[in-house]
Amino acid sequence: MIRRRLRQGLCVSLLLLSTGCAADGFESQEGELRQDSLNSPTDTGIDLEPGLWHDNVLVPGEGWHLYHFTPGESGWVAFQMQAPPGHENLWSYLRIVDPEHNNEVWAGVGNKRTNLCEVIVDVDAGHTYDVIVTSQENSLLAPGAAQETDGPYTVAVSPMPLDFGAGSD
Amino acid sequence: MRRLGMGLGLCFALTLAACASEEPQVQQAAATERPAVQMNDVSVLWPLPQADDGDALLSPEGLLSAEDYEAAFGAPGSHQAGGTPAAPHLEGLRVVAMRLDPCAGAIHDRCQPELRLVFQPVREGSSGYEADDTAVHAFYALTADALEEMVARLVELRRVGGDEPLGGLAPHPRMVAEGLAGDFAMGLSELVREMAPPGRLHRLTLMTNSAFGNAWNFSGVDFGPDGEITRIAMPHLPAGTEVASFFVGFQGDFGGEPPFSPATSGPDDLQLLGNEHVAGRATESERAEAFAALLRIEDPSLHDPDTTDCASCHAAHPLRQLVAEAQFGFETPALNSPLVPIEDLAELHGEDATVNLHMFSYKGRTASIHRRTVAETAAVIRSLSD
C-alpha cells in the first residue's frame, strides 16, 4: 500500500487518491495518435526488479509507459526515472499506482539540470504496483490531446536502506 | 606510489636491475630460461580491425549456435530480468579475445581445462572499428590433452617468423604487426574454430549496459551434459538472482545508490568503495577493510566465479584505480610471478579515465586489461610449467 511521500529536492511529489487506474481498454488505430491519458498507457509487460535499470524511448502516439513492480520484501524503495538533461520535451515524470487500494502518488522533475525524478514509497511484499512513466508536460495535456514527447529515458526501482524506527507510519 | 610485492617479485625486480649493467650476457640467459609459453599465448586479445581489414574478426558461425544462444538469453530482442537489455544479436558478434585455463576451479580442488572466447558487437564507427560496451563470454570444456595440444600449436604458430618476447598482455603484437589477414591471425582463427565447436560449450555469460551507459548487468547460464540449462547462481547473492548489476551514478562519478544490486553478503565485501560519497563518510579502517577485500577479489588464488559475484569481480579494477587509489590514496602491491618478468605484470594506467568493466576486451576503441586477468594469466603460465 502506498502510504506516504518522503524525498524532497529532486522532484515534486504529491499523494493523491485516484478515481480509477485501470490500464486496459484502449486500442490504437492505425494512422491515429493514441489518446494519452492515465487510462491508456502502453503496457511494456516488464516487471522491474530492484536495482536494475531499464532503458526505453517515449514515442509520440504511444501513450505513457506502464511497468509493474512486485517487491519481494516490504520496505522503502525509490522509483527513479532519468532522461538526458536539456531535452526539449522530456521532463521525467513518474506515477506510482496501487490499483488494489485505488491509490497513487506522482512526481515531476524538480531539477531540470539532472532531469532525475524519484518517488520514495513504503511498499508491501507481494503487492503489485503499477509504475507509469512519461514526461511532465503530458500530465497537463488537454483532454484528448496527444503527447508529443519523443526521447530516451531510463527507469528503475532501488531499495532504500531507511529505518525511521517505531511509529514512522 | 606502488610497492613491490614481497618474495619472488622483489627478487625478480632485483635480478632485472642487475641485468642492466651486463646486458649481452643477461639477455642470453633470459632467452634460455624463458618458458616456452608466454602471456600472450594463453590470453589473446585481437586488435580491432583497421579500415583495410574489413570484417576480419571471427564470427560466431561454427562456434556459437543460435539454438544455444536463444536458449540462454531468449529470442532476439528479449529483455533480460528487470527489463535489462537484450543480449546483442548473435550475427553481430565477433571474437575479440581468447583465454586458456588448464585447471578452472582449481581453488575448489576441481580441474576443468577450459577455453574461453570473448565476443563483442564490433562495428565501424566514425573513427574506426569499435566495440559496444557489452560482451558475451563462451566457455568450452576441453580435455587435458586437447588443451596441451592447443597450447603447443599456439606457441608454434607464434614462433613462425620469430621467437622474441611479446611482453605483457596487450592486443597481440603479431596481429598488430601483420594485420588480421596475416598468417598468425589466420592460423589462430583456424585453431579456435577447431577447438571450440558448439558441442563443447558449457557456459555462456552476458554483460549488458543500461542507464545511459552507467550500469552494467551480469547474468549467465550453464549447459548440462544433455543440453539442459541452469541459470548461474551467483555466490553470496539472494537465491533466485538472475542478474547482478553495478551502477556508477548518472554523472559517472561513483555516486550510484545503491552501486551494487543486489548487495552481496560475501565475506569479501568491496561495496563500500562503489559509492565514493559513502566511502568518504566511512572511517579509515572501514575503507581499508573494503580495499583489502577488493585485493582479495582480484586474487585468482583466493576467488573465482564460485566465490564472488560477477559485478564485484568486474568492478574491482576501476574501483581500485579510480576510487581507492585516486580518491583515498591506497597503494596497490605489484603482482609477482616466478615465471613472468615483473614489467610484464604491470597494469595499464591512464589510458581510459572512464569506468571500464571489461576485464579483457574493448570499450569503444580502448583495450581494457584488468589486473585480475594479468594475475590469472601468470597463474596459467605457472600451471603449464608444472
Please tell me about this protein's structure.
The complex is a heterodimer of chains A (169) and B (386). Chain A has one domain: Jelly Rolls. The relative contact order of chain A is 0.31. Chain A has strands at residues 11-17, 42-47, 54-58, 65-69, 75-82, 92-98, 103-109, 116-123, 129-135, 151-159. By secondary structure, chain A is an all-beta fold. Chain A has no helices and 10 strands. In chain A, the strands form 2 sheets. Chain A has a 6-stranded mixed sheet with strand order 1-7-6-9-4-2, with no helix packed on it. Chain A has a 4-stranded antiparallel sheet with strand order 3-10-5-8, with no helix packed on it. In chain A, a hairpin with a 4-residue loop joins strand 6 (92-98) and strand 7 (103-109). The relative contact order of chain B is 0.15. With 386 residues, chain B is an alpha+beta fold. Chain B contains 11 helices and 12 strands. The longest helix of chain B is centred in the last third of the chain and has 19 residues, at 310-328. In chain B, strands 1, 2, 3, 4, 5, 6, 7, 8, 9 and 10 form a 10-stranded antiparallel sheet that branches. In chain B, 32% of the residues lie in helices and 20% in strands. Chain B has helices at residues 8-19, 23-33, 39-42, 66-73, 144-159, 173-178, 183-195, 276-281, 284-297, 310-328, 371-385, and strands at 43-45, 93-104, 112-125, 128-131, 135-141, 201-210, 215-223, 229-231, 244-247, 260-261, 360-363, 366-369. Chain B starts with 7 loop residues before the first helix and ends with a helix. In chain B, helix 5 runs antiparallel to helix 7 (183-195) and helix 9 packs across helix 10 (310-328). Mean pLDDT of chain B is 89; it is low at 1-32. Chain B has one domain (34-385). The interface between A and B is medium-sized, with 25 and 21 residues.
